[in-house]
Amino acid sequence: MPETNPTSKSGGSSSRHDVVVVGASLAGCATAIGLGRAGVSVALVEKSPDPSSFKRICSHFIQAGSVPAIERLGLLDPIMAAGGVRTAMRAWTPWGWIEPPADRAGYAVNLRRERLDPLIREMATETPGVELMLGRTARSLVRDGETVEGVVVRDVDGEETTLHARLVVGADGRDSQIAEMAGVATKTLPHGRFAYGAYFEGPAPAPEGRTALWMLDPQWAAAFPTDDGLTFYGVMPTKDRLPEFKRDPEAALLNFIADIPDTPPIRESRRVNEVTGKIEMPNKVRVQVAPGLALAGDAAFTVDPLFGVGCGWALQSAEWLSESVAPALRGEEPLQQGLERYRRRHTSELRGHAYTINDYATGRRMSPPERALFAAAARDDRVAVGFDAFGTRRAKPGRTLAKLMPQALAVNARHALARRRAGGRPPVGAPQSAQ
Ligand SMILES: Cc1cc2nc3c(=O)[nH]c(=O)nc-3n(C[C@H](O)[C@H](O)[C@H](O)COP(=O)(O)OP(=O)(O)OC[C@H]3O[C@@H](n4cnc5c(N)ncnc54)[C@H](O)[C@@H]3O)c2cc1C
User: Fold this and answer.
1) Is the dihedral of CA 232, 93, 67, 133 positive or negative?
2) Best of 54, 59, 116, 346 for a ligand 1 pocket test (most atoms within 8 Å of beta carbon)
3) How confident is residue 9, by pLDDT bands cut at 50, 70 and 90?
4) Could you tell me which of 43, 183, 371, 403 has the fewest CB atoms within 10 Å of its CB?
């Protein structure tokens, strides 16, 4: 049970929990739920005073690779009951569509953040041992030497409270103040694109239910089916296209989507919210732990949203963190052992993916091996299935790509041979744009 103390040495009140989690969005709520279920007392601190607050700039396409973690959290059924959509991907490339067969594709889950965030926050509030503290902003850390031992939070009236804990979790997003206050080593990597998008109601892009991506190399667009029959149209152009979006975001979004191959029915649809965007999105890779401190979700790794992994990684990292540190918080081992276990797992699961994602985030064009892989996946179902397992983050890059590349090269060699035999004309059944 948390202990409270009306006056501390600093004059404000203080309390003691096993853990203080800063940020009650996806990573923070999932961490609090996991730890609460493990019998640990948690103060879950959120700067917004509104229990229904949600992240406004996010297309919330949660990759198939993260869905098992959502199921284990017990969140998948509530998501589906709230109107969530299960959807497989298809990707347009200059060589045709990559479309793995429906029975071998990964299925993502989509629910607008305005529904998802309050849903998981309510689940956290109902978890025994979790105390949700809304309208509290973390202002500074309590330390004993190098070790973090708590957080000072300020409420909306300016009152400060010191929250003491054995572990502080920074789940406070891409610009993590907790990481900064703790002086955690951060690598910032450049991002060469910006993002704009909005929800539309109207006819669904064909085939209905599939999420469509356009890999326009280096430009990018997507259509995500989501709850209430809405489609989120999003684009991520390179920075040289920014002036037209700043001038008139809606016209620029409509023109961009209406110009892409196999145009989806955006002009026959009605926009239902404001066109929103994000211009600066540097990727950040931080060391995930320090004495008395752990980072989860975007606070640990913030990667390019182009590949739609941030929400899922927030939930997965929360699961790894709560599983790793629960034994220590129950007094079964030193905390540093649990933190080190989390760091190793986070690194092993996500570092390879983060590397490939960050590498393409500069706005550069595809490299020759990437072109070979995309072309082969558009031409051959077996490559498309392996490519989908990697792209939906159900398979790690290293071994998967090592297996896929030889298959891709063989497919492309057969394709080139067939073209030559056909006198340079594309073989029967090849897409018009195939080169
Ligand atoms: C344009 C764009 C599109 C995206 N699309 C997708 C997508 O399709 N799929 C996907 O998976 N991901 C997507 N993402 C990424 C996704 O939004 C994030 O990865 C995800 O929200 C991270 O969750 P989180 O819980 O770590 O952090 P956040 O959701 O950022 O939450 C941080 C929380 O901490 C709170 N907080 C911050 N500072 C303090 C403080 N000092 N004290 C108290 N509370 C504090 C905030 O109020 C907030 O509630 C997109 C991102 C962008 C920018």
Assistant:
1) negative
2) 59
3) very low
4) 183
Phi and psi torsions of 134, nearest 5°: -85, 160
Tell me if 55 CB under 6 Å of ligand 1.
yes
pTM > 0.85:
yes
For residues 433 and 196, the model is more confident at 196
- Residue 2: the pLDDT is 55
DSSP 103: G
Averaged pLDDT, 264-275: 97
Q: Residue 189: what are its φ and ψ, rounded to 5°?
A: -115, 145
| 3-state SS assignment for residue 14 | strand
356 in contact with ligand 1, CB cutoff 6 A: no
Q: Determine the Cα–Cα distance for residues 323 and 332; give it in Å rounded to an integer.
A: 13
- Cβ–ligand 1 distance for 236 under 6 Å, the answer no
- Report d(CA 325, CA 157) in Å as an integer: 34
**pLDDT value of residue 426:** 59
- Residue 379 carries which side chain, given as an amino acid letter? R
> Does the Cβ of 388 fall within 6 Å of ligand 1?
no
CB hemisphere CA count around 37 (13 angstroms): 15
* pLDDT tens per residue, range 209-246: 999 999 999 999 999 999 999 999 999 999 999 999 99
CA proximity to 31, closest of 255, 320, 234: 320
Q: Is residue 269 in contact with ligand 1, taking CB distance under 6 Å?
A: no
φ, ψ dihedrals at 284, nearest 5° = -130, 130
In DSSP terms, 163 is beta-bridged to: 15, 151
Q: Is the peptide bond before 282 cis (omega within 30 degrees of 0)?
A: no
| Predicted confidence (pLDDT) per residue in 141-161, tens digit | 999 999 999 999 999 999 999
Average pLDDT, the chain: 95
What's the whole-number mean pLDDT along residues 162-186?
98
| 174 CA → ligand 1 middle, Å | 7
> What is the position in ligand 1's atom list of the atom closest to the CA of 312?
11
Does any ligand 1 atom lie closer than 6 A to the CB of residue 137? yes
Per-residue pLDDT tens over the stretch 75-115: 999 999 999 999 999 999 999 999 999 999 999 999 999 99
Ligand 1 pocket member 22 (CB < 6 A): yes
**Within a 10 A sphere around the Cβ of 206, how many other Cβ atoms?**
11
Query: Ligand 1 centroid vs 87 CA: distance in angstroms?
Result: 22
Report which protein residue has its CA nearest ligand 1's atom 41.
138
The finding on whether 45 has its CB within 6 A of some atom of ligand 1 is yes
Q: Give the integer Cα–Cα distance in Å for 264 and 262.
A: 6
Q: 124, 29 in Cβ contact below 8 A?
A: yes
